[in-house]
Amino acid sequence: MADEIVNRVAKSKLKTLDLEDFYPKGSRTSIDIKNWLFHELILKEKDFRESLKNHDWSQYQNHYIALTCSSDAIIPSWAYMLIATYTSPFAIKTIVGNLQQLDIAIFQDMLNNFSVEAYKNVPVIIKGCSNKPIPETAYIQLIEKLQPVAKSIMFGEACSTVALYKKKK
After folding, report:
1. Which residues pair with 108 in a beta bridge?
2. What is the pLDDT of residue 96?
3. Domains of the chain: which residue ranges?
4. Which of 39, 65, 78, 123 could join 152 in a cystine, given CB atoms 3.0 to 4.6 angstroms apart?
5. Are 75 and 48 in contact (CB under 8 A)?
């Protein structure tokens, strides 16, 4: 009589966590403000304000926005703050930086609100492969949240993991 094959992974308390499952919906948009500057270098307040006033901000409905300036202009902080007054009714989030920094900020917000209660005293696998751009920093933030509660933390797939942490007995 042949031995029955038992899926020990399915029977274990092991929990797999895939950050891709938490990837927020919404377009990521970079807005380069150099076009609103005089000769793409000088911020003239009156002209700048007029450009912002005439811009169609509704096109950024449910977008995540990264504000940047690709010229070597010196931009005062209030200018980005002023732009945010126009984006905030439409955008989900606005930052000053590039799209990579935007994704870091998005995941930081998500992980700050992430409950680890379901991972208390159980072994956890953080899934490594994803089709979406998950910032490396998000994995670090996830470790910081899980380590105090998880029994162990591994990275990869159930069939091939790298051990990262095991709670001392």
Report:
1. none
2. 98
3. 8-24+115-166, 28-91
4. 123
5. no
